[in-house]
Amino acid sequence: MANDVFGPVGTRLTQAVLTGDFKLYRSVMRLPLRIEPLGGQPYELHTDTSLQQDFELYHDVIALNDVNDIFRENIVHNQLADDLIEVTCVTHILHDTAPVVEPFNTLFLLRPTEDSWGISMIRSSIGHINWTLARSRISDDGRFTDD
To answer: Is residue 142 part of a domain?
Structure first.
């Protein structure tokens, strides 16, 4: 079952951030949503308002960097419990077919929602998380940087 769950969730997540569709984004998230930047300070989003603010920053930086595709190469699916799936993937952020930034690993925890599964935790590189919050940029050589 774990292998069948993330595909549709990942597709809707990509569509939401590329198009700016918060309603669709909200449908793939499960509050509270925990964000864990590797080597950084974790934080949680508890309300639709805080989730929407976070989403708007992410969508804005996606548009600013001319991102028009995000591909997640699923590498590990683990059914940790009946109500908990862990997915680790390599995330590719693209403009057409060209990488905008070097691929990076992302871990998602998914839990059931009313009608599907939703992301309850995201663990990613600190550069990626800071970039989604407009706190870092992508260097000319395709790396997240705080410069």
So the answer is: no
